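Encode chain A's predicted structure.
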Amino acid sequence: MLGILIYSATLVTQAATLALFSLGLNLQWGMAGLVNFGHVAFMALGAYTTVLLTLGGVAWYLAALLGAGAAALLGLLIGLSTLRLREDYLGIVTIGVAELLRLLLKNERPLGWLTRGDFGIQSFPKPLWPNPQGNPLFGWLPPNQYPWVLMVVVLVVLAGTLVLLQRLSRSPWGRVLRAIREDEAVATALGKNVFAFKLQAFVLGGAIGGLSGAFYAWYLQAVYPSNFLPEVTFQAWMIVAIGGAGNHWGVLAGAALFQLYNSLPRFLPDIAPGQTEAIQVMLIGLTLIFVMVWRPQGLLGKKAELLLHR
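Encoded structure for chain A:
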């Protein structure tokens, strides 16, 4: 029974991390209409920055914030050079940047002093565990029950991020983003600096993606370049599409459903190798078909905002 509870904590942590990652994409695409096929680059940079800083003695919370800052800086660099491009070109550039970053992490191994290439980084400090003396801060928790600690931390951060995004969505800033998403020409005619608003959304979304990278590294307890393949970005796209683009609560619902599909086949009777993954893909595919046909705005999306997807 205790093992099931611990396993459930890891599932919640993974779902919350995916939700945090997808909230960054939802800000960029769902609210501002920015096509980003390389969102995983922000997660990778945030994860590696956090891990390397904690190994250097930086406190975990400060390292995570600096990782988010590094991802925001990457978003600024990408945005300054690409946000004036058309949507399809922006998507091509972002996926290219993500692959370039992953290959740099992968091929740094000859130097051997930073990311360690394909060998990755396996041992690094985690939030609230252990303390500087090497002992767990929570003496009543055995070491194998650390997932409870990480789950609480990521849920607190996810809740704070959701509150922030909800307030921004209802602010004049959020309304301008939605106006830009629906018709840039109208927003420009009203005197809004479209490029500046797009850049702000892209940078903030990148920072949230970088913050999710810290939790992804702590969840995996190891980071490798292969953890940040393009498919991670498209998992976030599926979550946003299922939940409803532009709706932050919808992202949470999409992440929970996506995580359910990931975990449910593991409880099925033993089947032939490879069929479990096939069942997961089938469930996600059927859900996407259902959403696109009967709920094109997503589970919690607003039908009035479908102009973005025309």
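Residues 2-31 form the longest helix (30 residues).
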